[in-house]
Amino acid sequence: MTTTTSGSLTGKDLHLAFGSNRVLRGIDLHVESGTTASVIGPSGSGKSTLLRVLNRLIEPDRGDVLLDGRSVLKDNPDELRRRIGMVFQQFNLFPHKTVLENVALALRKLRKMPADEAEESALAQLDLVGLKHKAQVRPGNLSGGQQQRVAIARALAMGPEVMFFDEATSALDPELVKGVLALMADLAAAGMTMVVVTHEMGFSRNVSDTVTFMDGGVVVESGPPAAIFDDPRTPRLHSFLSDVL
Amino acid sequence: MDTLEQLGNTFFDWQAMVAILPELLTVGLPNTIILALASGIIGTIVGMVLAIMGISRNRALRWTARVYTDIFRGLPAVVIILLIGLGLGPVLRQLTGSTSPYPLGILALSLIASAYIGEIFRSGIQSVEKGQLEASRALGFSYRSSMQLVVVPQGVRRVLPALVNQFIALIKESSLIYFIGLVASERELFRVGNDAASNTGNLSPLIAAGVFYLFLTIPLTHLVNFIDTRLRVGRKQQIEPKDDAMEPVEEGARA
Question: From the Swiss-Prot or TrEMBL record, what is one GO molecular function term (chain B) (predicted)?
């Protein structure tokens, strides 16, 4: 996989509240260019919301987001999101379009590619995730694992500088998880900058460069995988790890 | 036996039916189709606008759609047809010189249809999972493009059966246009049948008109069922086996 221009990503002192519910309470996160940061933590800790604030699907109340060192909060959010690919827990493929159309849609409409060029490019992406032969099929006829690989191809087709994965394997049957994780590991190895919200502790430990543990809307601990998993310093991380491992 | 014969003559006087057939075919049928089709098309377009307004983030737009829908869905069709048909007649005459209430009939039917169709579209659009809009926005599409390319097409697909039902209702409601008084050449199926029935004192022409309605509505009813089944079980297609497990991902997925 050729990832030409992956960038670094920084979230600074990010705050977000829904009414009286303070979901993010001053989050700092830095992901070096070409590295993978995994974000772990209990349900409701604000991990998924953090991703949505970083690509401005939700605007933060306070704080800053920097892509390659430059603040992007004043940019057009639609253009920002074209630079950040996102993969969802529920795949969210467009069910009324074929696999090929799912991948080619943004290329045609946003990159303004001619139809044949967009199709060619989409087929190349599908080939990379091993699903070129399913190009003409509707997503509903694919397994969960295949759908998630198509979703990854759809995000990669836009040539993003950063990739977000929001519990990308949580909705998959156990036997399908491996294929998707392998694909994500390949991406990481190819030098893509990635933020991976995950419950897959094995992936977090083996693939990511840094691990961030969130709880209650704050970063409780963060560091290299070895430090987080083998030497947790806070009781909260300690009890979380003993619950999930 | 007399009673049966009498009923037979009242409802199934073949000669009376055959006599009215040409008029039903050349006058009534085309007019019913024009009324239903025109108001169906206008109602669909206006209904879509109302649905988009109804889910808009702009409060004023939402309220306008709400009030419109409540009024035109809440009133009996015949009341709207009379008010529009008779009330706006002079205005139309001043504007165009036409004394025909026919366009006003189409307008009244369109107003009613758009209120119902607007609600049908709105419920369909709102039934599309939030993740669809989110995924589209995450790719970099604007709210507007996301609605246009991703959300609305899915919403409309889901409510196609309800939409066809609304067209069936329109075909039947077009008969109410007779209230506003149409010249002979503008009469729709019901009016043609009803006039003949009044003239002869025999209801058979009305039965004949009824058969024409059924010719129009029954195929549509079956179309609804067909679409409904198709939407539920999908096109006949082999469900792909879960081949992730067997298929070596590495081959294709290598970086």
Answer: transmembrane transporter activity
